[in-house]
Design a protein that fits this description.
- By secondary structure, the chain is mainly beta.
- The protein has one domain.
- Helices cover 4% and strands 29% of the residues.
- The chain contains 1 helix and 7 strands; from the N terminus they run βββββαββ.
- The protein has a 3-stranded antiparallel beta sheet. It has a two-stranded antiparallel sheet with strand order 1-2. A two-stranded antiparallel ribbon has the order 6-7.
- 12% of the residues are buried.
Amino acid sequence: WDSGRWTGKPVVAILKSSVSRLDFTGDEVFRGVCGAVWFVNESSLDMYFSLVFTNPLTGDGTFNAWAGPPPAELSQEVYTAPSVLDQDGVQVPGGHGCAWNII
């Protein structure tokens, strides 16, 4: 985390074929939420789901995600993630192994 934290208990596992909700909050007066989160399968430790996000108090929020191998420098992806204002409808970026929809 650069700023912010889990709201309530952290999500420690995402079950196969399930829907999970990840909630974050910021506690600082002049900063929003900014971080990277990743999950890895417990059996072989070779499948990852990684995501980066920002939700600043001012300016555009950002989001990016990957299923499979994480980017080489996941922590740096926080600062290069695309703006959510540019993500209209379902996003299916090549090479990411997953899709999402910003609502």
